[in-house]
Design brief:
The chain is 63% helix and 14% strand. By secondary structure, the protein is α+β, with helices and mostly antiparallel strands. It folds into 4 domains: 186 residues, Up-down Bundle (Four Helix Bundle (Hemerythrin (Met), subunit A)); 98 residues, PAS domain (Beta-Lactamase, 2-Layer Sandwich); 63 residues; 149 residues, Heat Shock Protein 90 (2-Layer Sandwich), CATH 3.30.565.10. The strands form 3 sheets. The chain has a 5-stranded antiparallel beta sheet with strand order 2-1-5-4-3, with helices on both faces. The longest helix has 85 residues.
Length: 593
Amino acid sequence: MRIKLSQQGFILVLVPLALEIVFTLVLLAVMQQSQREVEREEKARQVAMSFNRISRYMMAEAAGIMLSSTEGKRGKGQHGLRHASLNIPHEFDRLRDLTRDNPTLQSYVNTVNKRWLEGQDQMHDVKILAEDNPAAILVAYSRLKTIISGIYLSGEEAADYAQATDSLVPSTQLIDQARTKLLIVIFLVVNIAVAVFLCLYFNARTNRRLRTLIANAEAMAVDRPILEKLGGNDELTELQRALLTMSSSLAQARTKERAVLDNAADIICSIDEKGTFVTASSAVQTIWHCDESDVPGRRLADIVVEEDFEKTWRMLEEIRQTGTTKTMENRVRTGTGQIVDVQWTVTWSKDEENFICVVHDITERRHLEKLRQDFLNMITHDIRTPLSSVQAFLNLLDSSVYGELNDKGKVKLQATEESVALVIRLIKDMLDLEKAESGQLRLDLEDTSTSVVISKATDIVKSLAEQKNIEFKLTGSDLPVTADQGRIVQVLVNLLSNAIKYSPPASFITINSQIINNKVTISVSDQGPGIKADDQKRIFNKFEQVSASDATSRGGIGLGLAIAKILVESHGGILTVKSDGKSGTTFTVTFAA
């Protein structure tokens, strides 16, 4: 059983406090004893004074009787006699009260009182003889004198005894004072000694347990077994249990983290500010064909291709200065000498003062991009050019350059023209999408207005609208915008084409331009069946349409909205859709402020 830290604090306070209480009680007892001695001293003084007064009163009364006998019946001296007679009994009562707790003095008081009573009877006889036979008074007075002398001697003895008792009190008080001083000194020494002992004991005990706890925590930090477990159930033991639990959780987390790193397809590594690898995951074996233990300590310049290193180091310095996370691409030389393309996602860690990097091999992606670019080039040169020639020849046939076609031939010609136009438009959309996604889309910004781009777009789709007897309603204001006029017209053409495609015949499409939240907007609203909320999330994806049947029933391959969204966002704007899913849909182009 260990004493808890909170209990140690109570002990450090309560033990000295208990000693103080004990000392206070002892000191009170000593002071009470001294008070009793003082009271005894006072009583002894009062007793001595009372005996002295009784002696004087007796002498005064005896003297009064003698004066009375010599003066006869003239009555002189009667006042002093009456005064002594009245005071002596009062003094005896006072003596009995003062000597109640002292049997020796009580016996003196009783003896003197008894003799006083005898003397009082004798003085009565003397007084009678003084009146009847003055000549016999000398004999009676002799006996009275003997009695009074005995009373006086007894009173003197009693007074001497009281005074002797009184003389002992100062020495007793001196002893009590010395005893009190000694007690105070002893108490101070004991109290200080106990407090110092408890402080040193608890401090040594707590420091030893703290050192053990710190050593255990340091061992846990480096994943070493602890040397000694703390026993007991105090707060330090509870803290050690919490540390052990945390260490176990961290060990499990490290195991999981290591498993993730070891099984990750990408290389996860750290590089110090000097460009030296600190750690690297096991993926370096499969991607860079290097042993995992060989990478730490190597310089980044030894791995990155020389032509790419300067650009890479500038990027790392920028990341370290700004504290941001950035992505970069370069080429590295593997352990087999092969050069591969990789993409780095780099973050600077201030705590560890390292770059934390995730390296992804993009060699295959670069190969696929090259294949796609080759395919697009093939479409552009080997398919689009011949189709353009076919389209030009069909136009010549339609212009009767090669003679008039019969009605059946004209129908076939129109169908062929529409098919060729559809393929050419599809190729154009794919090329535009590729340019936008690869960042090669170039914008020719110019000052224009909403009415201009709306007018150009409606002119292009006017024939499609007339086929379904659909009317355009223009609302709002003519607002200035800075944009690539041709690309914005292309966006509106895509939106208007979709609106015409999904609108019922003999309906209308509303085109509105206005300012919302200090930004210019153009919205296109139709009266079609609407778009459900779930479908609104995916219609801007490539090759997505509201339903699978739209590709055959309404035509198109689902690239129009994807291209429109990319074109609007390349201007810094946004393209949104709003519909209740039952009737009507509104697409809104919001330009950058």
